[in-house]
């Protein structure tokens, strides 16, 4: 098919115009708002007691109220359907709050996600990025949404200092969220909700210590202004740096973000913007699987088989605007826009195993990666009745445009010998450049991905909302363009596709605390990106369609809550063929059951538990060679049991603990190489008191208490395995004013 620059070039402005109009329409309508009258002193007192952060507008941007002690929310954002109570929707969604983030001393998103056994943190593609598997399918770190918008958050690693909520939707979500630019997330999605100023003035100063010598300081402050506290501002600052428990590995994180919002009678709007820089020097990455017949013994957890000249610098700037305007009662216009700029530089050297004794060869790869993304959504939602049937309808559009540029230099493929048990320093001069692509100071364009879709849904309710039926359809367009390092478009990997995909969901609530649900959902999205080991590295391979069926139940008994789900998901998957070409070779079919339980069954004792049982079977592989085998890197079971106990003999002293177990997983397509299962224990303690009306909280925890060493995960292609983190001490103190 010939190149058509005029049509492609025109798409982005048309997309931008449509999204800007959707987002700005509520702002233009603000001039029609009735001015709020001056309240009497008595009325002002009543207004102040109605805290903005505890109000909840179903379907909007207001957060689902936290459950009991404030660590878990039984619900979250379902894309264009907005924030939803989990009990009322035919999807499995849960939210983890900023209080849990603080109490777990979670520095990055993986630190909080690993407490949910249905999500498996993994490392990606021989670098320091964080990715996840949900229900056995990859969710790339670049495909996490921010306030429901894709393409906004910093690349690879996200600091939890940005997050008021970390919300997890389990199951296919393309109908709800639109299509992520990286094409992952078939098994589920993660959304981060930005921080907002609460009803009470708040300032928190914090200091923390991690690992061998990492020291950090933070500021989190928020205020509301105006006669009725309609204006809000929230500022977060963070800096942390020092050596980790892995020998000689040094990490640095700097972050600044601001959140501004307005809450009027009809108009609600917000702006969030920020900057994040993360740096890793002398980092231990992963280990290349290479030519082995069985998994080697795990080195000492503190062993660093990286090199002093290995580093990664990741800088991101991002911004998002959200608006809602109530046109009339029960009818709301909404819109959102987001954008980000990412610049990543790095030197990487992964030791590639050549035998089962830990001997390796190492090469050098230096990269420059730049990504620009623009995303948005807009639409209208409303409620009306037809006889005894209620309707909640939503008509919306969402889209993402992402352009990437890249360059590289690399050393000889022969490599330099080393050993992961007794690693040697290899001087950088031993890795001269023998191959390169593009200019490191001015990288060429490597890919463009454009996704957009219009969706229409209606949730019909009857019998006082005891029966809710959701039906909808989405027309999804996907366009993928790949380019060589010389800037020439690769016609063979050019993809254009569209499809109308349906969604059906049913919720039945026979008793107040119990709801049963079922759903069927389909999605069309870009295929995965070829890994660095492939001859077509960096190319997006095809367009894939996935399907999910799910049934389950949810319980909210006041003091305890939870969910149980049975599901099946089918999706074409990317693999390397015998010529190291990455493509869509086969289909992964995941059938499983997942369980989540949370709450405070006994006063002063809080529980958070989860479990996943999974059959990640490969089907339709080339010639049926690997049919019936397990998908690479997907354990058949995992569980996590966490708890807190407010010790009765010391007021405000709490003991904490989490036990995590993950089953074995395979590192190659024919299942001949296996990573053993592993167990990890984390313990901690928390104490708070008041000094001159200021609240002081001390936290201490030890992660991997027994210093278990294990191969923790393997990437989807089976190219890289990642080792467990060493025993790590974390200390922190916060002062709330």
* CATH uppermost class: Mainly Beta
Contiguous uncertain segments of 5+ residues: 1-54
Q: Provide the CATH architecture.
A: Beta Barrel
Rough outline: globular
Would you tell me the structural class of the helices and strands? mainly beta
Q: Please, how many domains?
A: 1
Distance between the termini: 63 Å
Total strands: the figure is 42
Please state the average pLDDT score. Answer: 88
CATH superfamily membership, which one?
TonB-dependent receptor, beta-barrel domain
What name does CATH use for the topology? Answer: Maltoporin, Chain A
Task: Give the amount of beta strand, in percent.
Answer: over 45%
Helix content: under 10%
Compact overview of the structure:
This protein is mostly beta strands and 737 residues long. Helices cover 7% and strands 54% of the residues. It has a single domain (5-736), classed as TonB-dependent receptor, beta-barrel domain (Maltoporin, Chain A, Beta Barrel), CATH 2.40.170.20.
Defining traits:
single chain, 737 residues, mainly beta, Maltoporin, Chain A, 22-stranded antiparallel beta barrel, 6-stranded mixed beta sheet, 7% helix, globular, disordered N terminus
Give an overview in words.
By secondary structure, the protein is mainly β. It has one domain: Maltoporin, Chain A (Beta Barrel). 7% of the residues lie in helices and 54% in strands. It has a 22-stranded antiparallel barrel. Strands 1-2-5-10-11-9 form a six-stranded mixed β-sheet. Strands 6-7-8 form a three-stranded antiparallel β-sheet. The longest helix is centred in the first third of the chain and has 25 residues. The N terminus is likely disordered.
